[in-house]
């Protein structure tokens, strides 16, 4: 948790961190203040999404689990039916946003510097560069990290966690906060499974269920187009579900 690793302070909220607190500043007090401010900003972001009927999906995983590759294939499959944009989070470089833009949709890169997660303030700044009124679907690719991103609400509607088969099949047991948060878990790169003798998909799902999670778990390969329809259907269903929960004025 970020209460202990100290990564709460980002360029998006640094002013809040060092603003003097009434009655004197304590570390715990400052961190609580940052998390409370993050939650308020996340609610503000969610109000933006809801006002425009935009489904916001937050993708989280360890580095290298295939988030950007999944998004590239997903955009190609859905861009004829939905207006899509992407917010990319990485410590440095514009590389992932460049990859996404090559698929014909707007992408805004957030570079966090040393911060290992996105927070609601950073996301809000990026939202001003996107045409929310012209979107149906916003993907947020969080910084590759299985710990801290789970602690920061961004205003998203759903959390998706990727677990690649080139990682350990006990990751849900080792990182319970992240996996317990997930509305959907994607087992990625399953085209590698025939070449691996140390990843058991059954054990991975058992570790997830032991967290009392009933989130769907879909095995997919974006590169080899394996089982992508399950994931794409889930997105279509969630767009309908979130819009049905909104006042009709937002989705007219
Ligand atoms: Mg990426």
Main β-sheet, spatial strand arrangement: 3-2-4-1-5-6-7
Using the coordinates shown, work out and report the CATH topology: Rossmann fold
Briefly, what CATH class?
A: Alpha Beta
Roughly how many Å apart are the termini?
A: 40 Å
Count of DSSP strands: 7
The distinct ligands, each listed once, are: magnesium ion
Shape: globular
- Tell me the β content: 15-25%
* Count of discrete alpha- or pi-helical segments spanning 4 or more residues: 10
Give a verbal description of the structure:
The chain has 252 residues and is an alpha/beta fold. The chain has one domain: Rossmann fold (3-Layer(aba) Sandwich), CATH 3.40.50.300. It has ten helices and seven strands. It has helices at 2-5, 14-18, 27-52, 67-78, 95-101, 120-127, 171-174, 176-181, 201-209, 228-244, and strands spanning 55-60, 84-90, 107-111, 137-141, 158-164, 184-188, 217-219. It has a seven-stranded parallel beta sheet with strand order 3-2-4-1-5-6-7, with helices on both faces. Strand 2, helix 5 and strand 3 (107-111) form a beta-alpha-beta unit. Helix 3 (27-52) packs parallel to helix 6 (120-127). The chain starts with a helix and ends in an 8-residue tail after the last helix. The model has no long low-confidence stretch (mean pLDDT 91). Bound molecules: magnesium ion (MG).
Considering the chains and any ligands shown, give keywords for the structure.
252 residues, alpha/beta, Rossmann fold, seven-stranded parallel sheet, 10 helices, globular, binds magnesium ion
